[in-house]
Amino acid sequence: MRLVFLGPPGVGKGTQARKLAGARKLAHVATGDMLREAIKSMSGAGLKAQALMEKGELVPDHIVIEIVEERFSKGDMKAGFILDGFPRTIPQAEALAAILAKQRMALGRVVYFDAPDSVLVTRISGRRTCKKCQANFHVAFVQPRRPGECDHCGGELFQRRDDAEDAVRERLRVYKEQTRDLVGYYTERKLLVRIAANQAPDHVFAELMRAVG
Is 171 a catalytic residue? Predict the structure, then answer.
């Protein structure tokens, strides 16, 4: 099983990826984790990414692609994988196709998790994070026992700057702009399946299992 998971911020694709990876013994490869792993291992691409990130610059496509290719050299990918958040652009999708061709692999499905902006804004803008231990809570869904205080360490809860409503709406706009062509790219190749992610997580997972077989 070789899958790509796409979807806007707050849609829950990471949660579903972890659940499916555990159920089917797949490698779950999230873009952020992959970058951190490459930096920690001090690989060539990881060191390049670290230098850019320390200067506050975005990691360009060619370095992200190099890190993805390094990840495919690890044995666990051969048993199946979920790419979570990669690719995000047409050049990245074309690079992935080339990497898979070298590995003599074929992509099975591209799953696009979809939800209305109003749902995503509520999910993200309601998040609160502990300043000490980084535990996450939510003003509506996962409330702490004491308002503004972490259940685990007693630290102060706060809203991250990029979780504020205006910032969330901008993140969603940018994501849609980036991925519009990518959705078309995979639709043309008859790989894309859409899943309504504005349901309970268990219902989303049941729909996911039907979609990927």
Answer: yes
Active-site pick, 18, 24, 36, 88: 88
Per-residue pLDDT for 4 more than 90?
yes
Q: Is 190 a catalytic residue?
A: no
Catalytic residue among 160, 176, 189, 210: 160
Q: Rounded to an integer, what distance in angstroms lies between the CA atom of residue 56 and that of residue 77?
A: 31
Residue type for position 16: Q
Q: In b/e form, how buried is each residue of 87-117, taking b as 16+ CB within 10 angstroms?
A: bbbeebbebbeeeeeeeeeebebbbbbebee
Q: Which domains does the chain have, with CATH numbers?
A: 2-212 (3.40.50.300)
13 is catalytic: yes
- Write down the pLDDT at residue 32: 79
User: Which position among 71, 123, 127, 128 bears the catalytic label?
Assistant: 127
Kindly indicate the confidence band of residue 128, based on its pLDDT and cuts at 50, 70 and 90.
Answer: very high
Reported pTM: 0.86
